[in-house]
Write a structure and sequence with these properties.
7-stranded mixed β-sheet
Length: 124
């Protein structure tokens, strides 16, 4: 069973950038797609980005295009989420998850393992 631990969150100002990390342990994640999600206070979980097992394909919803970039380093067993031009509405807990398959997907039902999340708070 894989364990996922997110890091890199914190309190930032509007306009700043952050790179979140998701470190996996227990076994390699190199054959699985990975995804990033977030949950803001009072809102449902929101899909942000997914990446295929080899990093060759990524998928972002229209709402995340341009500011959110997912990447991975399988040698380090780590996945990243770069967030640029942060806004107060980006305040949320950010989660990474391992997919059931090798291809990138936005379908939350196709993710089996989840981290505990890292808090991102953006002040105006």
């Amino acid at each position: 069973q894989v364990r996922l631990v997110e890091s890199g969150g914190g309190l930032v100002q509007a306009g700043d950038s952050l790179r979140l990390s998701c470190a996996a342990s227990g076994r390699p994640i190199s054959t699985y797609a990975m995804g990033w999600f977030r949950r803001a206070p009072g809102k449902e979980r929101e899909f942000l980005a997914a990446i295929s097992y080899d990093g060759a394909a990524t998928y972002h919803p229209d709402s995340a295009q341009g500011r959110f970039t997912i990447s991975r380093d399988n040698a380090k067993n780590t996945v990243y989420l770069q967030i640029n031009n942060l806004k107060p509405e980006d305040t949320a807990v950010y989660f990474c998850a391992e997919g059931s398959f090798s291809w990138a997907t936005m379908n939350v039902e196709h993710y089996d393992f989840w981290g505990q999340g890292t808090q991102v708070t953006v002040s105006s």
